[in-house]
Amino acid sequence: MILMISGDYKIINKKGRIAIDTLTSPIEEFFLDEAFVVGSHKTENLGVERIIINLVANPNVRAIIICGKESFGHYAGQALISIWKDGVDNEGKIIGAKGPIPYIENIDAHVISHFRKQILYIEDMIGICDADTVHTRAREITARNMPPFDKPALNVEGMGKKKSARVVLTCSEKLTVAQGLEIDPLSFEISCKL
After folding, report:
1. How many CB atoms lie within 10 A of CB 78?
2. What angle do CA 77, 79, 81 make, to 5 degrees?
3. Which of 34, 45, 80, 126 is most buried (CB neighbours < 10 A)?
4. What is the rounded CA–CA span in Å between residue 152 and residue 10?
5. Is 147 exposed, middle or buried (0-12, 13-18, 19+ CB in 10 A)?
6. What is the DSSP string of 10-30?
7. In the 8-state DSSP scheme, what is residue 96?
8. Which CA distances in Å does 158 have to 28, 105, 139, 162?
């Protein structure tokens, strides 16, 4: 029995060996019979955690394609690739992630290690929004010999219960968050200088 937590996804084939992550693009365009699941994620922290939790629940899944439009400023797809390649540091920060808050707080190192061993391939197709191109690559990957993972499924509980407190950085001056966009840290007023 595959126990998954809620999210923007659709299970297609429980025996599928590949997951398709569409980032912020609509998932419906990428449905594929060979895929276990097609879903999206938009953040470099909770979104990554949910993907890991849902994929370790099915040892059949051995590969991920990350495609579609990246979430602005979060680099959610890049964070998923980084955690798979390099894991997290002692503070739970995804090593090499570019997003502003790439902290894993709801799953422990054992789950991350399991995910990194279970997933044999992550195909970086970030920015590719053409479903036919993604489907062609997905079929090529699923044609590889990828037997189910030799460890049992993990059913992870406790999503939403933070492992530890994080330090909140403060400042007294306006913050520039993008070219021409500033936030006042006291009033939270946003000003645009374009």
Report:
1. 21
2. 75
3. 80
4. 22
5. exposed
6. EE--TT-SEEEE-TTS-GGGG
7. T
8. 29, 10, 34, 9
Name the pTM for this structure: 0.80
CA 4: distance to chain centroid? 15
- The answer to whether the CB of 23 falls within 8 A of the CB of 67 is yes
- In this prediction, what percent of the chain has a pLDDT beyond 70? 79
- The per-residue pLDDT for range 40-80, each reduced to its tens digit, is 999 999 999 999 999 999 999 999 999 999 998 999 999 99
- For helices 109-118 and 46-56, give the axis angle rounded to 10 degrees: 60
State residue 176's pLDDT score. Answer: 57
Taking a C-beta distance cutoff of 8 angstroms, is the pair 32, 38 a contact? Answer: yes
Q: How far apart are CA 136 and CA 133, in angstroms?
A: 5
Q: Is 20 helix (H, G, I), strand (E, B) or coil?
A: strand
Residues in the chain: 194
Backbone angles phi, psi at 183, to 5 degrees: -120, 130
Between CA 109 and CA 112 the distance in angstroms is 5
Cβ atoms 92, 165 nearer than 8 A: no
* pLDDT level of residue 114 (50, 70, 90 thresholds): very high
156: left (phi over 0), alpha (psi -120 to 50) or beta: beta
Under 8 Å between Cβ of 46 and 67: no
Question: Domains in the chain, ordered, with CATH?
Answer: 9-142 (3.40.50)
